[in-house]
Amino acid sequence: MAYTIKSNCIECGKCEKACPKGAIYPGCGKYEVIKRRCIDCGRCKAVCPVGAPEPKK
After folding, report:
1. For the chain, what is the domain count?
2. CB atoms < 10 A from the CB of 34, how many?
């Protein structure tokens, strides 16, 4: 299961810096996750001030 970034992302970049696998990158209006690189560690969610990262179900 990989994380996804919800539309409430404020593009602060904290999640990108926290990702140990480089799976997060700036997208169009919000950050995006490269699902094949995501190891489901939750570091992105832990640093996000608005709770935008969520586990994809």
Report:
1. 1
2. 13
